[in-house]
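Structure ticket #2291
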Amino acid sequence: MTILAHIFAVLLLVSLCAGECHDIDTKACELMQQQNPNLCKDPSLSSAACPRFCKLCPLVCHHCEASVLNFTDCSTSKTCQVGEQCMLHQLTSSKDGHHEYRMNCASLEMCDGTGLMPFGRRDIQTHCCSEDMCNFPTTIPTTIPTTIPTTSSPPVCNRNIEILIQDSQDKTASQYNIQFVKDLASHLVIGPTNNLVGLAILDYSVHRRLHIDSHQSLSELMQALDRLPFHQDVSTVTVSDVSHYLTRELDHLHLDGRASYKNSVVIIADHTASPEAHHHLPPHIDGHTGHTQLSSVTVINVGGASPAGLSQLATDSNHVINVNDYASLRNSLSKVLQLICS
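Resolution: structure written out below.
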């Protein structure tokens, strides 16, 4: 047994005690598979060290038992039972054509249609899948209310994505912010060789909450987003604070094997931030930070431009998006996806 395998065996004890089904280190699993293509066929290593990487864990699915008109309102997830799959019901009313959605875990019998309950006079489309968080609509029907953006297929790209959320006194802001990030991630391929997402909260300083390489699957990212803390207070962070944070964080990515990936930044700015936080962008900050290339910076102003002046950080005026309130964040999703991959 190799030294790395011994290390995995020791770390496994911690994982078992926690009662969780997670990889000891997903990046290490990827490296192990490069050295040993039969890693997932090895019953000891696959189950002990890399169960999620080798698809041995129960699935994590979008979970919303009650029907919702807007599928982005289904913001919770659930760990299924062993053998269950993720199920998506798309219900279309025979009366007026409106759509409703249910997302949950389902047995194989349910996926085969056994035991499905009628939902009145409606057409029902049922889809089951066997990947984490896969029970999410991939297209947006034209009959959804116009407040929901109708987008074409999302662009395909692989990026290091840093999301910065400015704290707000608006008590509803955090739930809309988290849902927006979940929607964004659901339209991207999350993985060690695809897109990775980091996140920081801007309150009296810049506080990193999710390191960009700490959650290397969509299910891990979704669960981490559910645990994000917000102070719900006035943000006093300055443009200089944000600039220095981005320079430091993105410059470190070359040490983590992500130097070849372009970097995209999304900032959600709040109009109630303290005016005292407004400082001009330091002249030495530009679109290139040391070892890593900064591809784009998109700033979403909620309720008006942030007094902190964060729009200065945007790549150009096309990368500044204004929305009326936090409930309207979802309307910017399509454009943000395009700008991330531009």
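Closing remark: Helices lie at 3-18, 26-35, 43-48, 108-111, 173-186, 218-225, 239-251, 333-340.
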